[in-house]
Every structure is written in structure tokens, then in C-alpha cells.
Amino acid sequence: MRTSLKMLLIVNVLCNLQAAMCFSQQYADTTVSIMPADSVDADKNSLLKTYLKRKFLTGTVSVVGLGSTFISLNNSWYKQYDKVPFHTFNDAAEWLQMDKMGHAWTAYNSSFLIYKMWRWAGVKRNNAILLGGLTGLGYLTTIEYLDGRSAGWGWSWSDMGANIFGISLFAIQQAAFNNQAIRIKFTTHNKQYPGQMKARADELFGKSFSSNLLKDYNAQTYWLSLNLQSFFPKSKLPQWLNIAIGYGAEGMLGGFNNKKYDDNGLLIFDASDTKRYRQLYFSPDIDLSKINTRSKFVKSLLNTLNVIKIPFPAVEYSNGRLKTHLFYF
Q: What's the predicted TM-score (pTM) here?
């Protein structure tokens, strides 16, 4: 469940980063209009001072925000387990790779939004891409290292692969096209479990509504959201219109299987007859960053919410069959 906890913490960081942007311009204009020499010099000095303040704010919010996640993660998770020598753990097959989707989502969105903060602070595009990518990689690699020192877990190469994929998707698109034509988004819903499964689900995912939303991999979907205008620039399609391909999974009441053993190796829960299966979704979506607005606050809010896919009708393919959803979240 540590991936879900990471998601909760990183959402807090992303919101802090975006909230800081609400107090000033969304992006600063790096050009100076044609005016008398004295006025140009004064304007440049004013701009440099503004950028200096923004760099200080960006650095402070990044350090405080990311630092607070480490403290929260340590207090709520790692203190439960003994410290041991660094070791690895192969969890590539766990949760039908849903936790790997969470890693990619976290890595992509944290790197991208940190990049945007540095651009807002006046840092050149390539340097901001480097800062966003390296900050995201450093943050997530440190967490993986803590996993490697925890008796309950271990360093996961598949987790690192998902982290690198998410960061690379952001960095390559921004460096090559200065545009995020493909975004990684997330949705979840509250899932109900019948009979004995409910007790096991409560144990795994928590009993509260908020805990279920964040921890239940059976209820989560991760999306690659493609902006159609970016792929078909000559078309008359709305700039904000996306098509999304989603990945989900069902029937999971354990990381690798639907069994639970006690400390003595005795089987105390067995739901092997519950099928674990993958789901593929297709649905329209909206790129909220492409919606025009004059409000700096609304623009920042839309950019923050853009990590979540907008609920729309969807087609699901699973178990060899197609299923339609009038409203899928």
C-alpha cells in the first residue's frame, strides 16, 4: 500500500506548488517591449528582481513540500518496520502492476509541475526540464532507497523503471515539442465488497471512504490522455479535446494472490476462486490546461486538477468482452 500513500503525499506537494503560483502571474514574460533605453533598463531590473523572488519561493516551497512528505512517510510508514541492510525485492507481478501505474503517474506529474514552477520563476526551458526531471527522480529514488533499508520491503527495480518512464514521458515531450501531448491521469471510485471479502478489503484498503479511494487498486484507473489537436494540428478539433486509454484491474485481495496466511503459515483467508483480471478503457477527456481563462487563479486550479481524468462515458474491454459505462470515474 505504500504507493497509495506516496500518491496522497505527492498530491499535497503538487497542490502546494500550484497554490504558490496563484499569488502571482502564471508565467512571466521574458521579453521586454520596445521603449526608451532608461525605461528598458528599469524594466529589466524590475523583472530580474521579480524572478529572483520567484526562484526563492519556488525553491522554498519545493524543499518544504518535498521534505514534509519524507517526514510524513517516515512517521506513517517506515517506523512500522525495522531497519535492515540494503536489499532488493521483486514485486513486478504485484497488484497486476497497478502500483507501477501509480509510480509512473507520480513521477510524471511531480516532474512536470515542478518544471512549471521553475519556468514561472524565469528559468530557461531546458534548465527547467532538467530541474523538474532530476527533482522528481531524486525524490522518488530516495523513497526507493528507504524501501531498500526497510525490513518490510526492499529496493524494487520495477518501481524504478516506472519512475523513469513517467519522468521520461514528461522530459522528452517538453524538450522535443514544448508540449505535453500525452499526459498520465488518474481516477478512482468507492467500491463495495460482498460477504467475507469486505473484511479482507477493510484490512487491506481501510474502512474510511477516503482510505478506500486512495488505497483500493481494484477501484483505481490510470490513463494515458492524448490531446487530439497536438496529433492533428491542421484539424478543427477543439484544443482541449483528448482521447484517453485507461488501465485497471479487478478481483485483487492481496498483492500476488488472494490468500492470507498467519504468522505460523496457516491459511486464514482464501479467495482463490475470485478471478484477478486486467481492464482496458477508452474514453473522451479534457485537457484542462488548454481551456482559455483570464483568471490566474482559475488557470492554476485547472493545471492542478489536470492530473485527474474528467468523468465521461467509457468503453471497457476485459475478460474478452466489451462493456459500456454511461459515466465512469
A: 0.88
